Task: structure prediction
Amino acid sequence: MFLTVVRHEWRQMSAGKILWPVAVLFALLVGYGVWNGLHWVHFQQQTLEAVAQEETGRIAKMRAGVVEAWATGAITDPSEPDPRSAGFLGTRAARNATLPPGSLAALAIGQSDLYPYYFRVTMANKVSFTNNDELENPTNQMAGHFDLAFVVVYLYPLFILALSYNLLSAERDEGTLAMLMSQPLALGTLVLAKIAARGAVVVALAAGFSLLAVLLSDAGLSEAQVWLRLALWITLLVAYGGFWFALAIAVGALGKSSATNALALVGLWLVMALVIPALVNVAVTAADPMPSRLELIAAARQATLEADKESKARLGQYHKDHPELVPKGSGYNVADSYVKYVLSLDTEEKRLAPILDRFDEQLARQQASVAQLRFLSPALLAAEALNDLAGTGVERFRHFGRQVDGHHRAWRGYFLPRLFAKANLSAAELDRAPRYTFFEEDTAAVAARTFPVLAGLVLPTLLLGAFGLVGLRRFPLIA
Result:
């Protein structure tokens, strides 16, 4: 009987005036979101290609300079940089640490337009290279991007509610519900069959376009981790859609008119998709406000001035401790300038460390608060999980940051001993300098973060569905 009702409902919906306009509009919005996501991934890929080309050309040129310097002899003028020196190469021949777009990045832009995805890692402190130039339009950063995840989180529920606000009330108003119930058919079975027919349409559109976006983005579908992420993405779509269908059942079971149902459901959507996330943001910001950015800027300037003065004294002490490295004669010496530069930046970093730690601690507390409060809103849950699965959430950028830290330590560990020894490097030594390779986060860790979100959606869905099905026992069959 259930499948019979589903087939009948599908024929009725196909002949009606609501399904196709809603489905076409939803498909257009989903398609535009996919196109926008693909465009952003293409922009990132072009940027990383340009960064890689610049790095290859720059290092090749510097390597040729090293070979030429060893062939023609040492630099006699101490005011000119020696292209072989560890200080020169450790600063100018720096390699880039890059974060490639994730396998599902075309589905959700997330925070990838806010976090930098490439750094030129030098032997200086981390602060000096993490504040790199941003190529993205700041207007886009402020307004955000329209992507498939945005459609899913905010518009997907509206299309579900548009198709399900009058599941029974329309039949009752037309006088056909009582006739249907004269058949050997339970009211709950009728509702679930109607939901199944409508759910198949919206979920198929969202899931189909998701798969299309992954195919067009050349995400490497031969890899099992891509399929696992995509499977979790589609599972999340089903769970999130199921919540809104269950909400429609619960509201419809109260027996009100179609107009009342529509107003109630739109009001609940506003509260859960817009109001609660905004209140969470206000509450988290008020409870754990970030330190003043102006304070950081002022402290950075003061730390730079003090570090410059202190580095001169430290360089003098360094020469006392290493008299064999004191330059002969007088005047400006480039080798010493690199030592002074590194010492100055290290001193600056130590002075800024307490302020930077305060920013990191406050940000961690804010994110922990959001992680706890996100279960108040299905939209917050879905948005965070979709970004995480797409590789554009905060966790993947943290993963990238840890790898950048490791590469930075390796780079400094290779060049700083040679810098302080004022050594000249050969082309082979330059070739042996540490190289950066990004290792993708384990998909099992991503899945472990997704399961609590699925539970946070499925549990209220079951409760709302149970409430609605029980309430249908008292549903008036006649208006």
Residues 81-143+294-449 form one domain. The chain has 17 helices and two strands. The CA atoms of residues 55 and 95 lie 7 Å apart. The first strand starts at residue 95 and ends at 98.
